[in-house]
Amino acid sequence: MSNALQEREIALQRASTSEEKLTALNLLAEALCEVDPQRSLTFCEEAYQLARQLGDPENAVVALLNRAWAEYCKADYSSSFMSVQEGLRQARTHHFDVQEFDALTILGNNYIIIGNRADALQCFTEALTISKRLENPRRMATALSNIGQEYSKIGDYKEALNHYFQALDIMRSTSGQPIVLVNILLNITENMNSLQLSDEAITFALDSLQIAQRENYVVGEAMSLLNLGNAYNTKGDATNAEMYYEQALARIHEANAPIYEGSILQDRALFLLAQGNTAGALTNLLHALDILKGLDAKPEMADAHQHLARVYQQMGDFAAAFNQLEHYQELHEQVFNEQADNRQKTLQALYEVEKARLEAETQFNQNLRLQNEIQQSEKIIAELDAYADNVAHDLRNPIGVIVGFGGLIEMNLENTLDEDNLSHLKNLLAAADKMNDIVEALLTLARTRQEAIMPQVVNMPQVLDEALARVQPFATKRGARIVVEGTLPNAMGNDSWLEEAFVNYINNAIKYGGTPPVVTISAAAEANGFIRYRVHDNGQGVDAEAQRLLFRKFERLGQHKIEGHGLGLTIVKNIVEKLGGQIEVESSGIPGEGSTFSFTLRAPNTTADPYQP
């Protein structure tokens, strides 16, 4: 037991009044959250009940937030969500800024677990605002670091560095908290390495190393050495890279921090593999895997198996590579199922919390209850969208494995397989490619539903050129002729979204066009300040009954077999409506006369009201 923990145990034993006992209970519960969360929960409950008896709302909120963090550390995320939501509500009711900051920080971490990074970022941003109001440097640095980590996880390393440097400036102007300073420097170094700014990464890594050594912060020292190894590896200095990897392993071994040791071993293995030292890479990865198995660290174990597959592949041992991929797939599925279960429980907890709140408000104001119920329904839909987006992201890896190793089999066995088996293999690869197309379409659909956008003037001829370049291989395959009538006028929108809209419209026109397909693209201004963009095909047309079903998810234009997944028109509808426009289809239903799919966008420099049908 640490000295700090012992001191809090003694303080509880010596408490002579209920007020002293309450303070001691909360301090001890806080200290136990990460060390022994189950025991912490016992003290949290005792503190909460005592705070209510004493009429002490501030300590009651502290007890709730301690409970929320202990439940989080115990991986009981649905309970943590319920506790932190109640704690946040009470903190805001009583204007407890410090507790509101803590609640938002815990809530942000919970949102990360279910893959809702947008709400996590919003929580950390609100916490930053509160920390500035409190003029609390440590809390400001913590909030900035949390925001930086979120940007780093989505690959926006420059924006992450912006927040880390703000946190660094705050901590360097404040005495104390050297461990926090080291961790901020480590984050900066990792992002510098991700941007391949090796010289800058070396500078900050040496800074964090010096502070960690002075404070005898062994884990920080080891991770600083690892960052130096990665920086020199990026720089192409294999000698220094190997030296720092060795030093990092030696220090982390002394710290008895196995999860970090596993991470360092994997980074060193990848370095050795890049140097052509497959034997060394294999030794390090097997050692890392042994350590991670002892910790039951499934995500890290999955990474190790995936890296081992690369090593065995490079060694020419394809049987061993397949074996490692099977382990990777099994672990990845376990992690996915566990995360999905946590997300489902958390979403249910959120629903239950809001449902209880709405029911309590019913007796005061029925109209207010109905309004809040609508808002809650929208929130649940947003959460489910985020969940679907996360599931689609999780599907990318296994599909990539199928495509990658299917291609490997085809490359190595094409001349030895009989015609039937080779046909089966090609069908498998085609199915995997189609699965990948569906995943990408789902991700696009989720982005267009979730992302906020401020329309800007769009160069439509350029957007169309980009779209035509993307569809050209498919058009060539089908022998399609694409005609653009005149120059498309510019409009208010978003370049990448509108490129996606044109790609989907044109692809559909080619798929359902005549033989050969002829696609005509045109545009014309309308009297209401909007511009209508049209894509016409020469196909069989769409009858009135079928037109009513269009623009729904997974609906196709005909019953005959045509490759696709029925998401393209739904994506166009979401994009155009998000930009303030409207979609439309015109068709007589007579074979050969084809169909015209169109959408409207606001013309630049117009003050027209949004389009009304």
List keywords for this structure.
613 residues; alpha+beta; Serine Threonine Protein Phosphatase 5, Tetratricopeptide repeat; five-stranded mixed sheet; two-stranded antiparallel sheet; 23 helices
Write up what this structure looks like.
The protein is of the alpha+beta class and 613 residues long. Among the domains are: 94 residues, Serine Threonine Protein Phosphatase 5, Tetratricopeptide repeat, CATH 1.25.40.10; 78 residues, Serine Threonine Protein Phosphatase 5, Tetratricopeptide repeat; 46 residues; 147 residues, Histidine kinase-like ATPase, C-terminal domain (Heat Shock Protein 90), CATH 3.30.565. Helix content is 73%, strand content 6%. It is globular and about 90 Å long. The C terminus is likely disordered.
Q: What does the average pLDDT come to?
A: 83
> By CATH's scheme, which homologous superfamily of one domain applies?
Histidine kinase-like ATPase, C-terminal domain
CATH topology of one domain: Heat Shock Protein 90
Distance between the termini: 71 Å
Shape annotation: globular
Structural class given helices, strands, pairing?
alpha+beta
Spans of at least 5 consecutive residues with low confidence: 553-565, 607-613
Biggest sheet statistics? 5 strands, mixed
Using the coordinates above, name the CATH class of one domain: Alpha Beta
Roughly what percent helix? Answer: over 70%
What is the tally of helical segments? Answer: 23
Question: Total number of β-strand segments?
Answer: 7
Oligomer: single chain
In N-to-C order, the SSE pattern is: HHHHHHHHHHHHHHHHHHHEHEEHEEHHEE
Alpha-carbon Rg, integer: 29 Å
Q: Give the strand order of the largest sheet, numbering strands 1, 2, ... along the chain.
A: 2-4-5-7-6
